[in-house]
Amino acid sequence: MPQLSADQQTEDQQLLDKLRPSRIVLPVLIGLSVVGFMFWRSYKPGDLAPLANAKPIWLLLMLVILVARDAGYVYRIRYLTQKVLTWRASLDVIMIWEFSSCVLPSAVGGTAVAPVLLHKEGIPLGKSVAYIMATAMLDNMYYMLMVPLVVWIGGDALYPHEALQGGLVTTLRIGFITSYIFVSLYALLMMYAIFFNPQSVKRLLVRLFSMRGIRRFRGKAYKMGNEMVLASAELRGNGWGYWLRAALSTAFVWTARYLVIGCLISAFIDVTWPEFWLIFGRNLTYKVILLIAITPGGAGIAEGAFPTFFGKFIGTPTMTNFMVLLYRLVTYYLYLVLGAVFLPRWVARIFGKPKAAQVMHS
Predict the structure, then answer these.
(1) Transmembrane stretches, by residue range (predicted)?
(2) Has residue 239 got a pLDDT over 90?
(3) Sequence spans of domains, the chain
(4) Is 229 in contact with 124 (CB distance < 8 Å)?
(5) How many CB atoms are located within 10 Å of the residue 95 CB?
(6) C-alpha to C-alpha distance for 361 and 25, rounded to whole angstroms
(7) Which of 44, 149, 296, 300 is deepest in the core (most CB within 10 A)?
């Protein structure tokens, strides 16, 4: 086996430290403690009666959507990397990416790990960064385009007036609008940098972060500018077919992600179609809470905020809290388990079996 440089060994160790299975413990404890407290505070005998009237077709549809969403992610990363990744490698990358999103703070997410995962699969680091920047741009553009649509359809009902006082609704509205503006500006800036003039964007970022008060972030801005220059060099020559496929797969996976809650509620509660699409729209305001969560995978915060946004459609607090548990089981705890399954296999394939055994016991 070739000898690794000190920098390479450090990069490998940092990656494996971020992905060590012991990181599962904290988010599970936080999330289940919050749900347990909510059950303890709200439980009333008979409130779970709707469970007896479950509609299996909606549960099946939810599972199909979950599988289709992950298949869409696998498809997207394989074709964004121009099929350098095999289907198996693409699946491994997505599962470990999801796992890292669950065990790292939501503000960081799996994006911090993803370029290194691609690099370990044999893709040069510059290209790896470019591909991840492309996914970030596409994800943000989906949000930028979808928000006006759901605001047009749902209007003021997107905000949970029934659960929040007027001042808190105003705060949420301001947070939602502010996050939308920042996400849109970031998406447009990345698009301009990748397709038109990355050097000017780099200069803009460096000058912006040279201002007093935010000067300490200048180094990160300089690094991001360099990454945009690299991304532009790697991606600008790709044709319309490449970007159309990437955009459609992005729209598919995010639409599927936002459909899960509606399907889950519909499995136990009678929901009208206007209510179903309002639930879809409220996912975008719910996302604002998760964007600022500082806990791993938003653990505790996602559970605590869920009743505020979706309790109106479910009914009793006990039933709502049960929905919280089911929702987090299929969209969060499931990926902790899958990560614990895929991670040792991936580490063994990339680093060798002794390293996999070491990681699993860390």
Answers:
(1) 24-43, 55-75, 96-118, 130-153, 174-195, 251-272, 284-302, 322-343
(2) no
(3) 15-360
(4) no
(5) 21
(6) 14
(7) 296
Residue 362 clears pLDDT 60, i.e. is over it: no
| Sign of the four-CA dihedral 273, 276, 280, 285 | positive
End-to-end CA distance of the chain: 24
Residue 9: pLDDT over 60: no
Question: What's the rounded mean pLDDT across residues 196-203?
Answer: 86
| Residue 219: both structure tokens together | 């180094």
**58 vs 66: CA distance, rounded Å:** 12
On whether the CB atoms of residues 286 and 309 are closer than 8 A, the answer is yes
Enter the tokens of residue 31: 């999330």
In this model, does residue 7 exceed pLDDT 60?
A: no
Q: How is residue 317 written in tokens?
A: 């607090």
Q: What integer is the mean pLDDT of 174-195?
A: 89
Integer Rg of the chain from CA: 21
Residue 197 is given by DSSP the state -
Amino acid at 85: L
What the block records as the tokens of 137 is 């741009």
Structure-token pair, residue 210:
């040279």
Confidence of residue 4 (pLDDT cuts 50, 70, 90): very low
In 182-200, which positions are buried (b, 16+ CB within 10 angstroms) versus exposed (e)?
ebbeebebbebbbeeebee
